[in-house]
Amino acid sequence: MKSIRLRPAKERALIKRHPWIFEGSIASGRADAGETVRIEAADGSFLAWGAYSPASQIRVRVWSFDVEERVDAGLFRRRIERAVALRARLAIQSDAMRLVHGESDGLPGLVVDRYADTLVVQCLAAGIERWKPAIADALVAATGCERLYERSDAAVRSLEGLTPFAGWLRGGTGEPPARVPIREHGWRMSVDVAEGHKTGHYLDQRDNRLRFMQLVRQFGCARVLNCYSYTGGFSVAALAGGAQRVTSVDSSAPALAQAVEHVALNAAGCGFDAARHTTIDADVNATLRRCIEAGERFDAIVLDPPKFAPTAAHAERAARAYKDINRLALKLLAPGGLLFTFSCSGGVDASLFHKIVAGAGIDAGVDGYLLERLEAAPDHPTTVNFPEGEYLKGLAILKA
Ligand code: SAH
Asked: Which atom of ligand 1 lies at the shortest distance from residue 302's CA?
């Protein structure tokens, strides 16, 4: 077993059970991609077992802090069983949920989403890549799902020196999977696991979509603008909440086509007219400006942009972009209107996001009540010692 020795005083984060070791903290030692290493303090004492990743800034990710625990197929089986058991205890009201959420489930670099009887797996670190067959076996055993599709085509793979890959890991035929039908809060959705973003659906927003429906109903929001709509989850929620006119804005034509399908799929069941929904295939910032110039007004606006700041280094530029769209949305809202605004940037924490939105309100000359703080659904857990896991933050604001 190879050892990685840390520089003096660099063991502090590990003692607090943070699972990452950056390149700059390492005094000596190297290994192959994904190889298991013993991590030791400057004095040679044991700290953890981890996976070495020669191409990544995050040079080692921890598998276990327990000197007795062996890194073998059994470890992956136990971690996956624990992750699945947690979701069962959380009683998620959907047949679609995140089953494994990376570091928070003790499996750094692994994401597994369940869509009915299909699992979609993302392997985002060298250690996970190395243990993929054992992980696939453990997933089949713990869930009974026999169809595992891999979507390891995220850009972050290149930071790990891994090439993109998409295809069946278990089950399935040579063909990419067909759309997978799921239910979310009683709504019908159809997930494109082969071509959709990430694993196909933004599961982290599931409970916020339900909350949006409830608040649209409570405040009687008639005109709703869903910005960065993707496949229209918040639009279906708004229509189900009684909105009269809902507009989905996105720069992806395939996502908007699916939003139209999702609205049609739910019209009869939820009792709304699909003709109340329209789409705009355009940039959100430009659309908000155009709507303001045209003197339009909305009673509720959703802002759920992609990650503007992947890391803290991008925070300043991202802050300007967030402030800009929030300022425009606050202007465009009718008095008493509802803003559902989000950031999924790891580099912008909840308190910074709050300050950005407050600044946007000042620039817009708009006052608002902070109704609720929003976060990712509970199947995307955060652990106490890994605050980076808390990436999605949102605010529900009622314009004064
Ligand atoms: N709210 C969605 C998820 C949003 S993901 C849900 O609940 O499912 C972010 C979306 O923003 C993606 O669909 C992407 O196509 C879109 N997008 C990215 N940049 C954009 C831009 N500048 N203007 C409009 N849409 C954009």
From this structure: 1
CA of 197 to the centre of ligand 1 (A): 10
Range list of β-strands (E), 7-161: 20-22, 26-28, 36-40, 46-52, 58-64, 96-101, 110-115, 118-123, 147-152
| Domain(s) of CATH 3.30.750.80: residues in the chain | 73-178
Question: How far apart (Å, rounded) are the C-alpha atoms in residues 229 and 301?
Answer: 11
Helix (H, G, I), strand (E, B) or coil at 25: helix
Ligand 1: atom nearest CA of 233 is 7
Candidate of 197, 230, 343 to mutate for ligand 1, largest count of ligand atoms within 8 Å of Cβ = 230
For domain 2-64, is the CATH number 2.30.130.10? yes
- Does the annotation mark 344 as catalytic? yes
Mean pLDDT for all residues in the chain: 96
Q: Model-level pTM greater than 0.85?
A: yes
Q: Which CATH architecture has domain 73-178?
A: 2-Layer Sandwich (3.30)
Instruction: Decide the pairing of beta strands 96-101 and 110-115.
Output: antiparallel
Start-end of CATH 2.30.130.10 domains in the chain: 2-64
Ligand 1 mean position to 393 CA, how many Å? 16
Cβ(323)–Cβ(359) under 8 Å?
A: yes
Report the pocket of ligand 1 as residue ranges, CB < 6 Å: 202, 205, 228-231, 233-234, 249-252, 255, 283-284, 304-306
Residue 385: what pLDDT?
Answer: 84
CATH topology assigned to domain 202-399: Rossmann fold (3.40.50)
pLDDT digits (tens, 9 = 90+) for 222-245: 999 999 999 999 999 999 999 999
Give per-residue pLDDT as tens, 260-315: 999 999 999 999 999 999 999 999 999 999 999 999 999 999 999 999 987 778 88
For ligand 1, atom 9, which residue shows the shortest CA distance? 306
